[in-house]
Write a structure and sequence with these properties.
globular; alpha/beta; transferase; four-stranded parallel beta sheet; single chain; 13 strands
């Protein structure tokens, strides 16, 4: 019998396709109208921390260096009031095989695919994750397909995404490149169904558990050097997995007091699925276009229940500008001798401002770097921005306007963070949860789940439900 491959028919089969492509029956964790047993899902479908370390060691992932940024710390203190200016460390995740922390996620996902007998893996991503999956698949001898949104309707592609496509191909992956729009998920589902390959989603328990080693290593390395845990860790926030996994790793290392700070590039006003806006941003990840929607509705992911739940762990959420990140990318290279990709330096830009708020005896860790290359380089990014009609100049980054102008700070003292109202995110999440599950009357288990999932309490959840 011929299979109906119309858009509507494929979407109607998505839960069945995902169940076969991930091997998880998510329905068995459902406990209420909106609630599910998150920790049980992580425990039963993931691996222990020790097992993940062993899996990652098999392909050279993890155990990346923690570097003290002595010159940047000195600059921080010059710009801070007396007694202020935290010591800044950076976790050099560019040292992973594919050049980013995403190798940690991919290592566990691809290992699991091989263990379960899948012949190949598929990932839908325009970010570093595609390269990480392709790299790990090459090491384990599995086929790999990466599906990317690359072009606008004029056929123009952002240089960073184009470069990532080449990187995936270099690892032997087949790369399916699409224009921006709704066809990505449809094509992804079709490929999963036709090939029978494993879905290397960013949001499975395997992928999130893979990042826990990053938080665990940060805690161990800081304790070895300083004799105490970090005061705070700044984490680039997009889909929520980076923050969730790192925070869980810190907790497993016995660091409940370490503050978890999410940081994103501010792209307010730009719509990620818009053909006009698609190429008017210089960052393909780590921005509010992912950070806000995935915090306020994590289950928008390509699996029924997203294992990335950032609001459970986030103590503070800040934004920086594109110009701030380009400035810090050059500062990292010229003051510390580390040339790393701009998107990975989002958390560094935020940390540079936050360290000035902290006391000298406190420790701030920047949680990642990423590899760089021709397409990621600031020159390529800013040249492309000008070609799209975006003004690029020096000045005060407070004048930055996403999609209109990028302001490179005239002085490092101009780099600031802007706090995002966490309670606003929490309220939006609860409302989205009720709307998407069409849950009119919640049970006690649902209230408890929403409190845990927002890092609040049942009284807060009730206040939102009652319209405050």
């Amino acid at each position: 019998m011929t299979r109906d491959n119309s858009y509507q028919a494929v979407m109607a089969r998505k839960n069945q396709i995902m169940k076969q492509a991930v091997g998880i029956d998510y329905s068995k964790y459902e406990t209420g109208k909106v609630a599910f047993e998150y920790e049980r899902m992580m425990e039963e479908t993931g691996y222990t921390l020790e097992e993940i370390m062993e899996i990652q060691a098999q392909t050279g992932v993890g155990n990346t260096p923690l570097l003290e940024l002595k010159n940047l710390t000195r600059l921080v203190r010059k710009l801070s009031p007396p007694g202020y200016g935290a010591k800044v460390y950076i976790k050099d995740e560019a040292c992973n095989p594919s050049g980013s922390f995403k190798a940690r996620r991919a290592a566990v996902s691809v290992y699991h695919a091989e263990k379960m007998g899948y012949k190949g893996v598929i990932a839908a991503t325009s970010g570093n994750y595609g390269a990480a999956v392709a790299s790990q698949a090459a090491m384990r001898g599995l086929k790999c397909i990466v599906v990317q949104e690359v072009f606008d309707s004029k056929g123009k592609g952002q240089p960073e995404i184009v470069e990532k496509g080449r990187k995936c191909e270099a690892y032997g992956a087949e790369v399916v490149q699409l224009t921006v729009g709704p066809e990505l998920f449809y094509v992804f589902l079709r490929l999963l169904e036709e090939t029978g390959y494993f879905n290397c989603s960013l949001y499975t328990p395997f992928a999130i558990a893979g990042i826990e080693t990053l938080g665990y290593e940060i805690a161990r390395q800081v304790k070895e050097r300083e004799g105490r845990p970090p005061t705070a860790v700044v984490i680039t926030h997009a889909g929520g997995g980076n923050l969730t996994g790192t925070a869980r790793g810190l907790l497993k290392a016995g660091c409940p007091e370490t503050k978890i700070i999410g940081a994103s590039v501010n792209l307010e006003g730009l719509h990620m699925a818009s053909d006009r806006d698609f190429n008017r941003k210089s960052f393909t990840t780590g921005h509010t276009g992912f950070g806000v929607p995935f915090a306020t509705w994590p289950d928008r992911a390509d699996v029924p229940r997203n294992a990335a739940r950032p609001l459970r762990y986030m103590d503070r959420y800040v934004t920086v500008t594109q110009g701030d990140v380009f400035f810090m990318t050059e500062a990292l290279a010229q003051l510390e001798g580390l040339e790393r990709g701009p998107a990975g330096n989002t958390s560094l830009a935020a940390a540079f401002a936050i360290a000035r708020e902290m006391k000298e005896d406190e420790i701030l860790v920047v949680q990642e770097t990423e590899y760089t290359g021709a397409g990621k380089h600031p020159t390529a990014q800013l040249t492309f921005a000008r070609e799209q009609g975006v003004e690029v100049r020096t000045g005060d980054p407070a004048d930055d306007k996403p999609g209109v102008r990028i302001i490179i700070p005239e002085h490092p003292g101009m780099i600031r963070v802007k706090d995002f109202d966490l309670n606003r995110l929490r309220r939006s999440y609860i409302k989205n949860c009720i709307e998407n599950f069409k849950a009119e009357r919640l049970e006690e288990a649902d209230l408890k789940f929403l409190a845990e999932d927002t890092g609040t309490d049942i009284e807060f959840v009730k206040s939102v439900l009652e319209g405050e």
